Amino acid sequence: MNSTPDLILTLPLPPSRNREGSRHWAVGARLHNTWAETAFATWAAAGRKQFAAVKVEPHFYLGRIRDDDNAIGGMAFKGILDGLKGNLVPDDDPSHLALLPVRQEIVPERSRRLELWVYDVERT
């Protein structure tokens, strides 16, 4: 999107789906929960803005480009979205949260992060 986001949430760079690997379900659940808590804390620190429905554009700032499905396909990214459910938006179903195409940019190690650019559907 080319418009100004209504909110930008900046999180640490989550692992790619390839890095997560296939693990025991309990390990995956812990990873999911950790990222859900991180997303919630980031949202709370950003002022606890709430929207009826949003479009979210993930911006990955990383060391090398990932396949889009590996960038957002893992338990960490699912945890991030679940951490915003019931907080940023009422639910993470398609009527409340639309995921826009992934953006990626190569940056130095100290600048690696994930930014979620949030657009209020009612405003766009």
What attributes characterize this protein structure?
5-stranded mixed β-sheet, 60s Ribosomal Protein L30, Chain: A, globular, single chain, alpha/beta, 5 strands, 124 residues
Write the topology of this structure.
Blueprint: E1 7-11, H1 17-20, H2 25-45, E2 54-62, H3 68-72, H4 75-84, E3 97-99, E4 103-106, E5 113-120
Parallel strand pairs: 2-3, 2-4
Antiparallel strand pairs: 1-5, 2-5
Helix pairs in contact: 2-4
What does this structure look like?
- The protein has helices at 17-20, 25-45, 68-72, 75-84, and strands at residues 7-11, 54-62, 97-99, 103-106, 113-120.
- The chain has one domain (7-120): Holliday junction resolvase RusA (60s Ribosomal Protein L30, Chain: A, 2-Layer Sandwich), CATH 3.30.1330.70.
- The protein starts with 6 loop residues before the first strand and ends with a strand.
- It is globular.
- The chain is α/β, with parallel strands linked by helices and 124 residues long.
Total number of strands: 5
Query: Rough shape?
Result: globular
Query: If helices are DSSP runs of H or I spanning 4 or more residues, what is the number of helices?
Result: 4
How many domains make up the 3D coordinates?
A: 1
End-to-end Cα distance: 10 Å
Approximate helicity band: 25-40%
Please provide the ordered H/E string of secondary-structure elements. Answer: EHHEHHEEE
The share of residues in extended strands comes to 15-25%
Mean pLDDT: 89
Look up the CATH topology: 60s Ribosomal Protein L30, Chain: A
State the name of the first-level CATH class.
Alpha Beta
- What is the subunit arrangement here? single chain
* Gyration radius from CA atoms, angstroms: 14 Å
**Helix/sheet category:** alpha/beta
The fourth-level CATH homologous superfamily is Holliday junction resolvase RusA
Low-confidence stretches: none
